[in-house]
Model the fold of this input.
Amino acid sequence: MTNGCNLQFSGDQPTKPVQLRAGRSSGKLRCTICDSTKQVEQHHVGGRNHVVWFTIPLCREHHVKLTRYIEAAGVDMRYTPDRRTRLRRARKAICMLLWFLDEEEELISKEEEKGKER
Done:
């Protein structure tokens, strides 16, 4: 079977078991960005109305911040019965997540540089 990208899928089981607790410490979810365990929520990366199963853990602060960025970019996260439109909206939201992660990484780098100067 091919996925259109010249990759072959054998349908075989993974050689290593999937780590269901990956990203967790002591059974608690941690924010993907700041590593906090306080008020961690599952963010629907492509929007809960578009791609229900694709989530990442974010603390409340980063969840709200990312949601505001997605809104500011004009990404419509409302449900539509049109599957293509849902997928397009999900891709836009995912692109915003990637941009947001880059922005947050830059902030961390700047904070680290300030700490070294002291």
Remarks:
- The longest strand covers residues 40-44.
